[in-house]
Amino acid sequence: MSDNPIQLSPQCSAISSFPVRQRLLVVDDEVLILEGLTRLLATRDYEVVTANGGCEALIAIGKQQFDAILLDLGMPDLNGNEVLRFVTERGVDTPVIVVSGDSTIDAAIRALRGGAADFVRKPYEPEELLRRIENTLTRRRLEKENNHILQRLQQSEKWHRFLVNSSPDFIYTLDCEGRFTFVNDRVESLLGYSSKELLGQHYSLVIHEDDIARAEHIFNERRAGDRSARNIEIHLKCNPGMRRPRLMNGRCKSVELTATGMYDEEASPFEQRFIGSYGVAKDITERKQAEETVHYQAYHDLLTGLPNRALFRDHLGLMLAQARRTQQPLAVLSLDLDHFKVINDSLGHAIGDELLLAVGARLRQCLREGDTLARLGGDEFAVLLPTLVSRSDVEHICRKIIQVLSKPVYVKGHEIYISVSIGACVAPEDGDMIDSLIRQAEIAMYRAKSQGRSRLQFWEAGMQAPYSERMQIEVDLRRALARNEFVLFYQPQVDTVTGEVRGFEALLRWWHPQRGLLTPADFIPVAEECGVIVPIGDWVLRQAAEQMAEWRRAGLPPVRLSVNISARQLESADFVDSVMRAVQVYSLDGNLLELEITETLLMRDFEANAIKLGRLSVAGIRLAIDDFGTGYSSFKYLSRFPIHTLKIDQSFVQELDREENMSIVNAMIAMGRGMNLNVVAEGVETEAQRALLQQMQCHEVQGYYYSPPVSSHEATALLGRHARGFEQHDQRVAG
């Protein structure tokens, strides 16, 4: 021990040597997330304590100490910000890493300012999370060591240097002329200067040019004690010869500087001889970059890097104010790619994203310097054209855009042709309110689409009426469930040989208080767009399950009931659970419930859909492919799903008199039978169609030839008549 220049006391050694296993508290209200994080952290030999919600977290924090806390924000009992405030106010010396699915800028900044050591968004890469945890624990260890050593600064000069050089912060002293008399080793990793390079140099050598004026007051700090400068943000320059570029632009670092004046302790109290200043600079570059990243993401589209709707509104507000001063008009354009959904569905979202990038690049080529191009979402772009002379300027730019985008785009071996519909409005002629101008341009764009696409349409008075009606439908839809305005009708599916009712398809109708009975075509597109389709779909599942339970209680024979599933339903996280709840609540035989899904919908997220439908198949739920023949019609892909039924689209059935259609339908039926699938033909309206389908050995038919969609009462009566008819037939056969 005598060979060591510095000897640690037992107490100091206890603080410096951490236990082998570091203890982490994981706080979340989702049990699956807690289990997953526990398994992940166990791979690094952490000791993990879990808390299912904020209240359990406070109890755990009160009982034992932790090296770090992984904290979710959105929890029903006590949210993460309240837990974070408790940790801060109670002075709990434990770093908190917020792990949240809330991706808003306010959530991240509020957590960081509330005392969080780091902010990780869900979903995250496991290795990234582990790296963040290790970095936080390392910083905590260094800070603990630093704080403890600071208390013993006066023990000896050697002890002082050990303290300072082990600090994660840049520590320095200046003489009364502002020259460095001491710098710790941290300066080399922070700024790329060695201690020898800075000693004797004026502090201005490391100050960024923009902060020279502010630095004069901080680095020449003469105040001491509570009145001294604390946590002043400033930028320090890195050594130009520094090899390793770091955060920001690699040439400067953001620090929080705390400085105090130093005075000669041997002088009399009346002299107060100033001998220099002492300062500590804490590196906050990572935090600043995180804040800048959050800010950028809040105002830019992450795919294209273009301004998003929020930033576009800001630019429009500034340009409107300038237009009022200069008395020059400006224009707002709304651009939407024609048939982009077809490209996404047929070639995949990866190709669609590449196409959007190419479109953004071509649009920039068509615009002037000073114009603003933004992506508002999906395939919708917006353009702001300030300083116009007349509407002819708008027409010229739009013609150029339409011409440029009409040329083929080559993406990963695909030659893609696109066109664009453009809506335009001009301020102040069409108004001078931000949201009104954007909305009017969008409405004009929709009019351009309705008139044949690939054209420009200026806003005109009276265009608002159809869209006001659509908005009213959306408002009424949101109230319809609470007012019990929806009803299910049932169309029978009949055996082509025996005429027996094998099942029903549940069809949604809306008893609108003013418009009367509406079919899905009148409101489902609006419900899909505004998201109301998910609760409506859940209601349809529950209502269909309740109807099956009623038929069972009435002693009617068990029949299959088919329910249509929307895209948003299938994509929702709790889709499988919602189906299983409907089956379990009414104690149904899962084999009697059939979910109808289109081919296009199945292919939207192939792997995820296969997993969800596989879980339902294990529970006995049947799956039908609706409108077969209008989508992919690929048995190679369909074989990956647990399919029980193929429903041939009515467009083929209604034209069976055409030879080519008859061949197609015959092939579909033959292939379906070859895969041991039940085949149902939709839209059967004549005896000739029924006879042809029976001859082709189609299992079941559905259409107005047998029955239109009927009410619950009529469906029950129809099922009862069929049951009695077949019962009498069986008795006659037995007799």
Overview of the structural elements:
This protein folds into four domains: 20-147, 3-Layer(aba) Sandwich (Rossmann fold), CATH 3.40.50; 157-292, PAS domain (Beta-Lactamase, 2-Layer Sandwich), CATH 3.30.450.20; 305-461, 2-Layer Sandwich (Alpha-Beta Plaits); 497-728, TIM Barrel, CATH 3.20.20.450. The termini are far apart. Strand 16 (420-427), helix 16 and strand 17 (456-458) form a beta-alpha-beta unit. The strands form five sheets. Strands 18-19-21-22-23-24-25-26 form an eight-stranded mixed barrel, surrounded by five helices. Strands 2-1-3-4-5 form a five-stranded parallel β-sheet, with helices on both faces. A five-stranded antiparallel β-sheet has the order 7-6-10-9-8, sandwiched between helices. It has 735 residues and is of the alpha/beta class.
Could you state the CATH homologous superfamily of the largest domain?
EAL domain
CATH hierarchy, class of the largest domain = Alpha Beta
Distance between the termini: 110 Å
Total number of domains: 4
Radius of gyration: 35 Å
Task: Report on the biggest sheet.
Answer: 8 strands, mixed, barrel
Rough outline: globular
- List the strand order in the largest sheet: 18-19-21-22-23-24-25-26
Helix content: 40-55%
Poorly predicted runs of 5 or more residues: 1-18, 245-249
Domain PAS: 156-226
Catalytic activity: 3',3'-c-di-GMP + H2O = 5'-phosphoguanylyl(3'->5')guanosine + H(+)
GO molecular function: cyclic-guanylate-specific phosphodiesterase activity
Domain GGDEF: 328-461
